[in-house]
């Protein structure tokens, strides 16, 4: 198994979208979530995005060990991958425990920012969802506010798949009894103007 080429990710998705849902995990780390989730969702194509090569290789080993044919890894900055994706090509985006950048001066480095929400809106299919988990309350509030302010999204009450809690961070935080904050967001359906 090879890493997906970031330059050709759009054509790769095109080759699979007629036979499966397309899901994206941003910040797949060592692959704990993507391998578990892909095993339980054989009819979805799940693409993990990770910037660090060592983590990508560990994630690929987990995928190979389970002989999964529906999980793939791309090594690249998330923002660059998002820019390369076609409009309305993704069904679900998973974002679990993104780096909180807790210092005020570092908040501009957080993934969930208005320019990134614009990309999420563009690549998600109408009705597509974004599933988010964090243990950092300040980041949770920021995400909730930004999605509330964006016209293309609505926050929905939805149960997250139980597999999200099997990620390494979720397991660690749950066993330490740390609070985990979850958010499920949906892209609003496109409404045709009345002529």
Describe the structure.
The chain has 195 residues and is of the alpha/beta class. It has one domain: 3-Layer(aba) Sandwich (Rossmann fold). 35% of the residues lie in helices and 24% in strands. The radius of gyration is 16 Å and the shape is globular.
Question: How is the biggest beta sheet arranged?
Answer: 7 strands, mixed
* Strand count: 7
Shape: globular
The end-to-end span amounts to: 51 Å
> What is the CATH topology classification name?
Rossmann fold
Structural class: alpha/beta
Alpha plus pi helix count? 7
CATH architecture: 3-Layer(aba) Sandwich
How do the strands of the widest beta sheet line up side by side?
A: 3-2-1-4-5-7-6
CATH C-level name = Alpha Beta
Radius of gyration: 16 Å
Proportion of residues in extended strands = 15-25%
Helix content: 25-40%
**Overall mean confidence score, pLDDT:** 91
Parts with pLDDT < 50 across at least 5 consecutive residues: none
Determine the CATH superfamily: Vaccinia Virus protein VP39
Number of domains: 1
| N-to-C order of helices and strands | HEHEHEHEHEHEHE
Please name the defining characteristics of this protein.
195 residues; alpha/beta; Rossmann fold; seven-stranded mixed beta sheet; 7 helices; 35% helix
